[in-house]
């Protein structure tokens, strides 16, 4: 069973230091079952632990990035005490706990948990055929892995409320206008565009990249004053890194830096 579960997410290591993680349950539109999310958590753990990998891209297959958490699997739970007892979906936190940056390459459906998974990544690149949305209201439930919290931070209250309370699908173009995605690219190119961005990130000092990610994320969790203090600490901490010295030295010598901790 372990190996069948393992195949639900494919991990490809590129020489550029980028890991491409492909959600691989195309017949179910990549519905995010417990097994798939366990496989994803395990592969993200491998990415964080492997010093030759600097960044990851998460992508889907065919018609979907992911059409949500697995509705049939969740329906097999009987009542509040079941889902509370097992803390259903709590293990999804592994995505946002990953220290290396993750780019979501979204083509097709990114609905419910699929939209929430994309939002738990650091940058979202959308194919022009991508469709986002939080349709849980249509199932008689609400988003359960960060949707109500991350969407409002991404697009503001009025749009977040409209999208969550109507359950309507959002086009890639609207998602870009609203600030949910960083850019929209032609259909068929989303994975390579996301990989290019991840490769650019992977070309820099990996510890510095991880500090920058941690700082930006702190902005969503703290007050402005606390966030600025946190940033100042991590900024000062870069003075403890060879790579900071090298970056500044290279600038003075008008040459390209050679990162020790790429
Ligand atoms: N869970 C389980 N199975 C799913 C699924 C999901 N979220 N989404 C799609 N599938 C399955 C379908 O049941 C179908 O399986 P069968 O072939 O065995 O019938 C297969 O994937 C193909 O799907 P469709 O035939 O429905 O494809 P379509 O092109 O006609 O429609 C769709 C596409 C509009 C995305 C439709 O599949 C759909 O509405 N899916 C559910 C979207 C949704 O409600 N997502 C939110 C889930 S709840 C959640 O995520 C909670 C949370 O916050 C964590």
Automatic annotation (TrEMBL):
Pfam families to which the protein is assigned, alphabetical: ECH_1
GO CC terms in record: mitochondrion
Entry keyword set: Fatty acid metabolism, Lipid metabolism, Lyase
Keyword Acetylation: no
InterPro entries, alphabetized: ClpP/crotonase-like_dom_sf, Enoyl-CoA_hydra/iso, Enoyl-CoA_hydra_C
DNA damage keyword on record: no
An annotated Gene Ontology molecular function: enoyl-CoA hydratase activity
GO BP annotation list: fatty acid beta-oxidation
Coiled coil regions, renumbered to chain: none
Extent of the signal sequence: none
EC number from the UniProt entry: 4.2.1.17
Similarity-based family: Belongs to the enoyl-CoA hydratase/isomerase family.
Protein name: Probable enoyl-CoA hydratase, mitochondrial
UniProt organism field: Polarella glacialis
């Amino acid at each position: 069973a372990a190996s069948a579960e393992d195949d639900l997410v494919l991990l490809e290591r590129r020489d550029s230091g980028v890991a491409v993680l492909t959600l691989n349950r195309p017949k179910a539109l990549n519905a995010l079952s417990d097994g798939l999310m366990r496989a994803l958590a395990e592969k993200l753990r491998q990415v964080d632990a492997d010093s030759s990998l600097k960044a990851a891209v998460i992508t889907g297959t065919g018609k979907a990035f992911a059409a949500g958490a697995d509705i049939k699997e969740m329906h097999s739970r009987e009542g509040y005490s079941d889902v509370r007892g097992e803390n259903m979906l709590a293990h999804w936190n592994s995505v946002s706990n990953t220290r290396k940056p993750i780019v979501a390459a979204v083509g097709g459906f990114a609905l419910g948990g699929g939209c929430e998974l994309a939002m738990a990544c650091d940058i979202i690149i959308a194919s022009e055929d991508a469709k986002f949305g939080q349709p849980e209201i249509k199932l008689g439930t609400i988003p359960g892995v960060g949707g109500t919290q991350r969407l409002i931070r991404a697009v503001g209250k009025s749009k977040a409320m409209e999208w969550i309370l109507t359950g309507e699908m959002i086009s890639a173009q609207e998602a870009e206008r609203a600030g949910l995605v960083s850019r929209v690219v032609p259909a068929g190119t989303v994975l390579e565009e996301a990989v290019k961005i991840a490769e650019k990130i992977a070309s820099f000092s990996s510890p510095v990249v991880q500090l920058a990610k941690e700082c930006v994320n702190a902005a969503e969790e703290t007050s402005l004053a606390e966030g600025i203090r946190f940033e100042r600490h991590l900024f000062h901490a870069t003075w403890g890194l060879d790579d900071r010295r090298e970056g500044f030295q290279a600038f003075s010598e008008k040459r390209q830096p050679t990162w020790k901790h790429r």
